User: Which sequence fits this backbone?
């Protein structure tokens, strides 16, 4: 059965199991609220069950059968129809139980109807939230939100550096502004498809040229990428934010600067990217670093699920990030 | 109007160039020193005697916030203006405490206004700056009209003596007027308390030895690298010996 409306798929066993669980939990809650001791709780639970379980059974069957019809309605019509159906089922069971068992604590019908409507609304709202959390549109939006981040620190310092060049070295200022435009075009692009590794590397070069403008000889970078497969596909902006981190945490706090080493190679049909920078002991900016790393980890997960990994370690006074990405040949 | 002397501190050469360009466009201003970190700024300020210090916040070795704190010991006290490209946390504190700052890239008009209204920091403002960094990188010591900056990592121990605290490095001793409890809170990561009146840096402790103290009782002492003296360990702190 194709699922047209945003209603929960009532032909799915998992959905029915969840309904069972939620309604029974709510029933248990009601019993806890109404009872004062354990004994009372158990009798109350049993009493409530005589009414609730038949309603549940009936509605699961009814909804299963009626699902094709419900599915033709709009979302809101469907919601209203389900709530009305549930009230009908409840009234039916209520009259039936009252007729045959003549319960002592019998109550008025409208109270039961109201309860049925509320419980149905709660269950439907749960499914609405669940669908939102897993919808592809949300995942897409999350990917986009995760991607478009650059440190304001870098932006404003770079503009400041370019300004300093305009009077004395207009040519260099031009190149720097061009690099900045390219960098921001990629940063702001809507495209979240995988890109060629070579493309990401050239972006990193432009980024590092801008940082060299500010940091000059303090920033040294070594590329060990001879064995790199230029045509490997990676998520965009995986490397650049990591280099930005390396500069911010590993180079800027050092008076003498330091060296960033980028190593890229393939092994066992996997692409390995290793970035390391000097590790400053008295580093007060750990939180920002974790944010960026978490961001990249999440993006890798959204793209490759469990086939990729990101690990960090500190060895020989250097901070190292190791990324593993599947690489099909 | 007399000339206004200005010191610039920024670790980035282009940022200093830009600041110099802007200041050169203003009349009655002289750049008396340029520093590439907070420590250099304090060192240079002693002879250059600036009226205004323009301090970048994020600098290696010593940041601008700490430099401003040490600068309070300078005579005459310079006016402080912070500069930053982006530091949300610091900016919030500056706004709350009416501390002067400029956002990079800096505009000439803003720079002009800031310099004209620049004031020395008040004690309350200095207090407000303290939480902006975890711990100072240096202790500043006022000695015969000069400020000496002692890097925290060279300090072997800090010992309270009546009104003062003795700061011991491999080379010599200095005296500062601070409280040992406050120093312990600020530098708790770097020092351990060996005795009611003494904090020592664990990496300078060479070993432990039982000796006779002044009262002719057996007591544990910590032996220190690079210096001959040993520090008595109080009974309450003896667990440190077992932990090493």
Assistant:
């Amino acid at each position: 059965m194709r699922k047209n409306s945003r209603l929960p798929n009532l032909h799915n066993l998992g959905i029915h199991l969840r309904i069972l669980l939620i309604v029974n939990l709510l029933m248990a809650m009601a019993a806890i609220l109404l009872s004062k001791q354990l004994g009372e709780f158990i009798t109350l639970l049993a009493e409530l069950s005589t009414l609730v379980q038949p309603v549940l059974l009936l509605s699961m069957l009814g909804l299963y059968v009626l699902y094709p019809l419900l599915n033709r309605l709009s979302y809101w019509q469907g919601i209203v129809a389900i709530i009305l159906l549930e009230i009908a089922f409840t009234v039916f069971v209520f009259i039936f139980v009252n007729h045959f068992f003549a319960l002592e604590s019998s109550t008025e019908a409208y109270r039961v109807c109201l309860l049925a409507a509320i419980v149905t609304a709660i269950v439907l709202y749960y499914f609405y939230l669940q669908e939102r959390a897993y919808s592809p549109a949300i995942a897409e939006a999350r990917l986009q939100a995760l991607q478009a981040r650059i440190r304001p620190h870098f932006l404003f310092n770079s503009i400041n550096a370019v300004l300093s060049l305009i009077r004395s070295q207009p040519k260099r200022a031009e190149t720097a502004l061009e690099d900045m435009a390219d960098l921001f075009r990629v940063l702001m692009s809507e495209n979240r498809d995988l890109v060629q590794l070579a493309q990401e590397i050239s972006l990193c070069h432009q980024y590092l040229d801008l940082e060299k403008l500010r940091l000059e000889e303090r920033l040294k970078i070594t590329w060990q990428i001879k064995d790199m497969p230029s045509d490997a596909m990676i998520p965009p902006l995986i490397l650049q934010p990591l280099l930005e981190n390396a500069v911010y945490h590993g180079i800027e706090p050092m008076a003498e600067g330091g060296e960033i080493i980028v190593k890229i190679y393939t092994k066992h049909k996997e692409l390995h990217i290793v970035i390391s920078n000097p590790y400053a002991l008295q580093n007060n900016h750990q939180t920002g670093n974790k944010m960026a790393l978490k961001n990249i980890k999440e993006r890798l997960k959204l793209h490759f699920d469990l086939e990729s990994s990101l690990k960090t370690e500190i060895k020989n006074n250097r901070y190292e990030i190791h990324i593993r990405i599947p690489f099909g040949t | 109007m007399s000339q206004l002397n200005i010191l610039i501190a920024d670790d980035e050469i282009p940022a200093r160039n830009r600041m110099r360009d802007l200041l050169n466009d203003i009349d009655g201003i002289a750049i008396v020193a340029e520093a590439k970190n907070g420590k250099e700024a304090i060192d240079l300020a002693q002879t250059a005697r600036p009226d205004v210090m323009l301090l970048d916040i994020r600098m290696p070795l010593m940041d601008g916030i700490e430099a401003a704190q040490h600068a309070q010991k300078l005579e005459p006290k310079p006016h402080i203006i912070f500069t930053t490209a982006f530091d949300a946390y610091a900016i919030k504190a500056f706004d709350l405490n009416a501390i002067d700052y400029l956002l990079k890239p800096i505009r000439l008009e803003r720079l002009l206004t800031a310099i004209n209204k620049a004031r020395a920091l008040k004690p309350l403002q200095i207090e407000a700056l303290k939480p902006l960094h975890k711990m100072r990188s240096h202790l500043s010591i006022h000695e015969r009209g000069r400020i000496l900056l002692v890097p925290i990592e060279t300090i072997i121990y800090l010992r309270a003596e009546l009104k003062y605290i003795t700061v011991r490095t491999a080379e010599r001793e200095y005296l500062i007027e601070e409280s040992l409890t406050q120093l312990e809170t600020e530098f708790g990561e770097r020092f351990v308390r060996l005795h009611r009146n003494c904090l020592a840096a664990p990496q300078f402790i060479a070993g432990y030895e039982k000796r006779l103290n002044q009262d002719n009782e057996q007591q544990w002492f910590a032996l220190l690298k690079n210096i001959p003296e040993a520090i008595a360990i109080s009974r309450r702190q003896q667990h440190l010996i077992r932990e090493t």
Residues 13-24 of chain B form the longest helix (12 residues). Chain B has two domains: 4-132, 140-243. Chain B touches chain A through 24 residues (CB under 8 Å). Chain B has a mean pLDDT of 91.
